[in-house]
């Protein structure tokens, strides 16, 4: 039997709701069809935004959305996406399939979408091919309420009041698609560009995100921070509020053969999960470097691209990154979100890539049809952690499982939090393909009276299709007993379980 200990009295930090964020890029069918269908579409919509998708995202309690990229961000010129749609300039989406982007979804549409969902906004600016002036004017356009050329232009385009930009990324992957820069070159550009990301609304300062490393690239982290902190006043914290980290889970290390989303064996299951666990080590590594510059942890690590990346679904456009999502992805989501929770002292936001129809999406669409992926259900089950306090937890009796020595994973993994009403949320993953586990959950003081629970479990290969959209879905879980203040139950193989306890 595995014993899960929860010390709900020992609070370890606050879980920012933004740890449960998503990312939406002008890529494949994420924005167009996935989110935006236009006012004249037969698909039910409000001001062009799909009603079914908006409702599902509200239910999932999506806290923040990043846009417009990704690699697309450093090629995006925001002025092409404002004003009457028929006059908007078209462009080639060079990164993603070479398709024509008609810019019908731009700044106004993004804020409309976030207003409908009720989520915060994370805009990613263009450093790679944009100017300081362009970035500065975008911020003025979005956030200045007085009389100015950009605020007037916004009004002319139909929006009187300034919007609120919660997060602003100064470039994306500038070590790669965002300009192939060296860390010191980017660090200097960051210092310059961010200067003109003005806080017009002093009550709601913009959280500025500096481009951080790819996966294990500590050289980038070290040198960007060194450049940004050099001769900078201490109170400026290297001119940043956050430093990004991108990490994707690929079953194979070969980008031309990453592995299939649906057709995988037991070894690939464990290998994928082991690679997803690497996130823990990476956060630790980069955070240790950040500690040197920022021992008080004022700067957040912003994991604004994470998730699985497989070969595209056979027969689909390779530039559109469309993949299916099975129980394996549910477990990747479950273990990653537990890792983010446990690092909430440093990780202030995380955005899974991507929201709809791209990579580890929470929603897939096919014309008017929509389905929730297994990953969606995990986000939905974990939503109670948002804005709660992480509490001490650990598991006794964890075994390392998996066939290959190099890719072993713990068979169980957990995190726990307590919300403002004193309700403890526990999220547990059983990563084993075939072994159910007897589990006992014990608390420091809590004597569970009010308990509710949910489960997501199925065959390892199970996934939702447009013919059978609810094959994998969250269910109410009642198969537990309470004895001497402990919760005792059998956790099925390949499952995610969530308890709410008071
Ligand atoms: O999410 C797909 C791409 O992955 C993003 O555009 C880029 O930032 C990353 O390389």
Automatic annotation (TrEMBL):
Keyword terms of this UniProt record: Carbohydrate metabolism, Glycosidase, Hydrolase
GO MF annotation: an example: alpha-L-arabinofuranosidase activity
Hydrolase keyword on record: yes
UniProt record, GO biological process: L-arabinose metabolic process; polysaccharide catabolic process
Domain of life of the source: Bacteria
Annotated metabolic or biological route of this protein: Glycan metabolism
InterPro entries in alphabetical order: Alpha-L-AF_C, ASD1_cat, GH, Glyco_hydro_b
Transmembrane spans: none
EC number: 3.2.1.55
Position of the signal peptide: none
Residue ranges occupied by any Alpha-L-arabinofuranosidase C-terminal domain in the UniProt entry: 304-495
SUPFAM superfamilies listed in its UniProt record: (Trans)glycosidases, Glycosyl hydrolase domain
Reactions that this protein is recorded to catalyse: Hydrolysis of terminal non-reducing alpha-L-arabinofuranoside residues in alpha-L-arabinosides
Keyword presence, Repressor: no
Subunit-level organization: Homohexamer; trimer of dimers.
Family in the record: Belongs to the glycosyl hydrolase 51 family.
Protein name, as recorded: non-reducing end alpha-L-arabinofuranosidase
Species of provenance: Simiaoa sunii
Top-level taxonomy: Bacteria, Bacillati, Bacillota, Clostridia, Lachnospirales
């Amino acid at each position: 039997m595995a014993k899960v200990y929860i010390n709900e009295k020992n609070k370890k930090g606050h879980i920012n709701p933004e740890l449960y964020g998503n990312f939406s890029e002008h890529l494949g069918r994420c924005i167009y069809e996935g989110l935006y269908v236009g006012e004249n579409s037969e698909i039910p919509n409000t001001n062009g935004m799909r009603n079914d998708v908006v409702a599902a995202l509200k239910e999932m309690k999506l806290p923040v959305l990043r846009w417009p990229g990704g690699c697309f961000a450093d090629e995006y010129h925001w002025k092409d996406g404002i004003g009457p749609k028929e006059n908007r300039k078209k462009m080639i989406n060079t990164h993603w399939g070479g398709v024509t982007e008609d810019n019908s979804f731009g700044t106004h549409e993004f804020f409309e979408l976030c207003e409908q969902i009720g989520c915060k906004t994370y805009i990613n600016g263009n450093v790679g091919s944009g100017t300081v002036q362009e970035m500065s004017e975008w911020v003025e356009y979005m956030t200045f309420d007085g009389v100015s050329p950009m605020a007037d232009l916004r009004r002319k385009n139909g929006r009187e009041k300034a919007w609120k930009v919660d997060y602003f990324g100064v470039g994306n992957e500038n070590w790669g698609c965002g300009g192939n820069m060296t860390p010191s070159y980017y660090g200097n550009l960051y210092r310059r560009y961010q200067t003109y990301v003005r806080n017009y609304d002093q009550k709601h300062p913009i959280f500025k995100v500096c481009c951080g490393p790819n996966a294990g690239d500590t050289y980038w982290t070290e040198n960007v921070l060194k450049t940004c902190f050099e001769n900078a006043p201490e109170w400026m914290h290297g001119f940043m509020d956050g430093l990004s980290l991108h990490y994707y889970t690929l079953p194979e290390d070969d980008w031309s053969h990453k592995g299939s989303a649906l057709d995988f064996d037991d070894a690939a299951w464990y290998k994928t999960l082991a690679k997803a666990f690497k996130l823990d080590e990476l956060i630790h590594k980069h955070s240790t470097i950040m500690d040197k510059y920022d021992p008080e942890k004022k700067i957040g690590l912003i994991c604004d691209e994470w998730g699985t990346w497989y070969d595209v679904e056979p027969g689909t456009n390779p530039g559109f990154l469309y993949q299916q999502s099975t129980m394996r992805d549910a477990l990747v989501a479950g273990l990653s979100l537990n890792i983010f929770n446990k690092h909430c002292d440093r990780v202030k936001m995380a955005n899974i890539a991507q929201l709809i129809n791209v990579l580890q999406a929470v929603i897939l669409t096919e014309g008017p049809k929509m389905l929730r992926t297994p990953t969606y259900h995990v986000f939905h089950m974990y939503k109670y952690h948002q804005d709660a306090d992480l509490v001490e937890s650990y598991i006794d009796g964890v075994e390392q499982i998996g066939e290959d020595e190099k890719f072993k994973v713990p068979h169980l993994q957990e995190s726990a939090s307590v919300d403002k009403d004193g309700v403890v949320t526990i999220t547990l993953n059983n990563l084993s393909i075939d072994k159910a586990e007897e589990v006992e959950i014990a608390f420091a003081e809590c004597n569970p009276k009010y308990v509710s629970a949910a489960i997501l479990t199925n065959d390892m290969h199970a996934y939702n299709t447009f013919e059978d959209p609810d094959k994998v879905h969250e269910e109410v879980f009642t198969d537990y007993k309470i004895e001497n203040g402990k919760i005792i139950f059998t956790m099925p193989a390949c499952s995610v379980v969530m308890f709410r306890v008071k």
